[in-house]
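Morning!

As promised:
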Amino acid sequence: MTATAVRSNLLGTLLTRLTGDEKHAPSAFSTLDVLWVLYDRILRVSPETADEPDRDRFLLSKGHGPAAYYAVLAAKGFIPVDWLDDLGGPHSHLGHHPDRVLIPGVEIGTGSLGHGLGLAAGTALGLRAQGFDARTFVLLGDAELDEGSNHEAIAYAAAARLDRLTAIVIDNQSSTHGWPGGIARRFPGWSTSVVDGRDHDAIEDALSQSDGDRPHVVVAVVEPKG
Amino acid sequence: MRETFVRTTTALLDEDPRTAVVLADISADAFAAAHHRHPDRVLNVGIREQLMTGVAGGLALTGLRPYVHSYAPFLIDRAYEQIKLDLGHQDAGAVLVSIGASYDASAEGYTHQSPGDVALLDTLEGWTVHVPGHPDEVAPLLRAAAGNDDRIYVRLSSQHNARAYERTDRLQVLRRGWAGAPVVLAVGPMLDPVLAATRDLDVTVAYTLTPRPLDGAGLRELVSREVVVVEPYLAGTSSRLVAAALSDVPHRELHLGVGRAEQRRYGTPADHARWHGLDPAGLRASISTFLDRA
């Protein structure tokens, strides 16, 4: 069995525990591949360093549908695997939107769209002010970009030259009115990458980029939302 | 009060590497020198109040202590969900410092006024609210806020009393009536108008510049029958807390403050105080009518 197949089986098993659904292939989860590459290859954070002030930060702005996020956190040891068996129960740590106060390794609680990028900009500014080299990643959805608050943060992050900030937009073409001309164009002043959101090497390459002067946006294109 | 805020926060930036200031253009000029010395901790995001609050939440999550500042309607009303989620839901703290209060910007009109700011924060958990009544009360509040990670709102106003009082979370009794006399509680800049309105009335006058958390125990000690609360924001904002503090005392309450009706008039802050019945004559009339009804 290849390493990829092992990973796929593990995450598939975890997702089944979480959703109780045997039929969903891991590819049904639009964020799964990006999240796996982040935690497996990019982020300088582990369960042991989850409270270190100079850790890399990952902020899930698109807080709805967090099954893939929870599965990756369990696979990487941030949370016990048996937490996945109880989603949204009265004593569960895992809700339909994540709460940072309840889940180790979760940097922000989200659900209402359009909050993560502003928090990520503040996080990147706070790390820079303290002289930390850490990177800040924030994941959004293409429909989430409808929220105007994102565009406040996009403009300011470029002006403030937040070169340690990377935004990832999962593009499954679910925005009601779409983004004619492409999503990357909505990030003026940023360096941009557009990748196949299922190609792990391409995702890794895009997430590794940082041009030392500008924030970076990675548009990860996946199948249109069914 | 704004000058005191700028001076004190600028000093905190020099003294404490945790201090950060987040602005949305308002007062940016006043912080120009501080920005020059601390470009990474004096952040003007432009006219973007949602972002201002989100940035503050992010800064706090990395361990900094953000002071966030604008006109009250932009700082509180406009960014309410960011205050709720980017600070409260993240369990992050910040010091929100507003100017403008209810109608300091009387000639600017309703767009620049926020009589509902404290009522909005009352829908959320864990906010301390300071309403200083004198510029000299401001610096100690801001300095104390640097030493913790609480969620704190400081409501600055161009209206103020003739003298400053000490910083305490307890109600301060400034004039004591006979045992059992009606109690008039004045919040922040409402103290001098209350003292003038009740000059020859046999009432106990208490003062607070920290209405949240309300000193309910202190109020319970004072009130035996009637209580009048005079607040510089929406009338009745504190009624829920006063009722809770006095739940075992048969009593009558009168809550005075800014009315809900939009004035659609300009003029001066003194004009608005008169229209809302918050000048000494208006207060006197309301309080006397209430007490005579007993």
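Chain A has a mean pLDDT of 93.

Hope this helps with the figure draft.
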